[in-house]
């Protein structure tokens, strides 16, 4: 038994085959970055996205018959289309799109509803109000969905208009538990619940993917961060992973206790649905770093201090320490726990003896300190102890960074054998639902790790200096720092 996984990220998409031993093969990738027609706007062509997904899926299936399909996608990006034609009414709005900041502020002021511009709610409302006339936007011919919803609708040739609990719960349109749409919230955004997809379990038969060779059954849908959580085996309370990509996402598995609110908690984290099966929802807590790998890209493409992102490891390792230099990675503000959009990237402690290597190392260490911030916040909000960190993403291959993360967090760090654990997690979810494995625990038992790194030295002094550096980087742009979502 084998599973086809379709993994759709923010800048690219892939298909792969997941085997019973937990290995991946036949990985086919296409770059698919969004467009930015103006500062703050992030759009994509949903039809072209599906064409690319279909291409990589068919390539992966050329040599394999599969018993299940698992789908994992970037979350909250929004598409609106006509059921009668199957065509989007306009471009899809990416989760990074900021055109609805004003609408988020007004919604809190007028209705007391807290939503952020990276959620689906205001994006869907904006499309309905700006790309459709009054009669059209209240028609049941209009369908609304996130990326997973759109792709399932296309894969099933319009037979299924669905999303799962992990994706639905981050739209800003559900009740706190994430189990159903909140009719009061939908009404405030002038969205008809009938235009929204039916919410189904993460795991279980959803529909046949009739647009793929062999018509394999679609057996799992999950948001990308939740798939990565499962792909790193975090299904016991207190187990946590961090994915270090352009930004950084920490997710800790909490259990089956239903959250009482969907908004940000006191330490700056959010409740999420980790996965669901047989209408039993499993929950987690999520902490967010707004910029992680983007700081390495800045060193490379903007500052010219390194030739390639990979070079950062060797250059940073060429000095034993940053010699007192500290960097705050706040290129687009700070997420958890501070949520200060007006904070800005900062370098402190520079002397006449500071070298390129010191600065590169300080950048890696600064990202590691932000990772430790996420851990502390998640522990505070979940009341759980995170004994070790499991990490994936491009930066997980940087040895200097991994050691810095272990040092800053004072915890051992296990590095996923797969840089993209998201793909593997979607395979585990679909495979366990289809019988490839008898249970999710059996799927996770196949996991292998690239390495485990223990902390070195005492992190207390470094964390004290970090707290001082953070305080100085905040409120650099007061008007942006005043924003609260």
From TrEMBL:
Residues 240-433 form the Carbohydrate kinase FGGY C-terminal domain. GO terms for molecular function: ATP binding; glycerol kinase activity. Residues 4-231 form the Carbohydrate kinase FGGY N-terminal domain. Pfam families: FGGY_C, FGGY_N. Belongs to the FGGY kinase family. It comes from freshwater metagenome. This is ATP:glycerol 3-phosphotransferase. Keywords: ATP-binding, Kinase, Nucleotide-binding, Transferase. GO terms for biological process: glycerol catabolic process. InterPro entries: ATPase_NBD, Carb_kinase_FGGY, Carb_kinase_FGGY_CS, FGGY_C, FGGY_N.
């Amino acid at each position: 038994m084998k599973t086809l996984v379709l993994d759709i990220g923010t800048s690219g998409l892939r298909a792969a085959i997941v085997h019973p031993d937990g290995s991946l093969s036949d990985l086919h990738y296409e770059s698919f970055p969004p467009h930015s027609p103006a500062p703050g706007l992030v759009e994509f062509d949903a039809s072209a996205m599906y064409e690319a997904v279909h291409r990589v899926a068919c390539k992966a299936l050329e040599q394999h018959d599969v018993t299940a399909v698992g789908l994992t996608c970037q979350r909250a990006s929004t598409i609106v289309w006509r059921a009668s034609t199957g065509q989007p009414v306009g471009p899809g709005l990416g989760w990074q799109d900021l055109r609805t900041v004003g609408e988020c502020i007004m919604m809190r002021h007028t209705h007391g509803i807290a939503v952020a511009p990276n959620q689906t709610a205001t994006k869907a409302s904006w499309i309905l109000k700006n790309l459709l006339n009054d009669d059209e936007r209240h028609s049941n011919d209009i369908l609304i969905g996130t990326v997973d919803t759109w792709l399932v609708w296309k894969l099933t040739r319009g037979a299924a208009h669905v999303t799962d609990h992990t994706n639905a719960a981050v739209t800003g349109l559900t009740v706190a538990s994430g189990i159903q749409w909140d009719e009061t919230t939908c009404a405030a955004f002038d969205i008809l619940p009938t235009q929204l997809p039916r919410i189904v379990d993460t795991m279980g038969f959803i529909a046949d993917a009739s647009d793929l060779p062999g018509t394999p059954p679609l057996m799992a849908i999950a948001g990308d961060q939740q798939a990565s959580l499962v792909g790193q085996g975090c299904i016991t309370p207190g187990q946590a992973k961090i994915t270090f990509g352009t930004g950084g996402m920490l997710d800790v598995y909490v259990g089956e206790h239903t959250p009482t609110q969907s908004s940000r908690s006191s330490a700056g984290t959010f409740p999420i649905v980790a996965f669901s099966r047989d209408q039993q929802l499993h929950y987690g807590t999520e902490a967010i770093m707004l910029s992680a790998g983007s700081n390495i890209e800045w060193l490379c493409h903007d500052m010219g201090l390194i030739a390639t992102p990979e070079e950062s490891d060797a250059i940073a390792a060429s000095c034993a320490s940053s010699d007192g230099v500290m960097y705050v990675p706040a290129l687009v503000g700070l997420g958890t726990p501070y949520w200060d959009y007006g904070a800005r990237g900062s370098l402190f402690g520079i002397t006449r003896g500071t070298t390129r290597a010191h600065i590169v190392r300080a950048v890696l260490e600064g990202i590691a300190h932000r990772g430790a911030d996420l851990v502390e916040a998640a522990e505070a909000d979940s009341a759980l102890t995170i004994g070790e960190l499991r990490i994936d993403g491009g930066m997980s291959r940087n040895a200097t960074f991994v050691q810095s993360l272990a040092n800053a967090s004072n915890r051992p760090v296990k590095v996923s054998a797969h840089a993209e654990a998201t793909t593997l997690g979607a395979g585990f979810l679909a495979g366990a639902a289809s019988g490839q494995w008898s249970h999710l625990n059996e799927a996770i038992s196949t996991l292998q790790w690239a390495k485990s790194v223990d902390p070195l030295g005492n992190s207390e002094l470094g964390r004290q200096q970090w707290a001082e550096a953070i305080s100085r980087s905040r409120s650099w742009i007061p008007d942006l720092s005043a924003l609260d979502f």
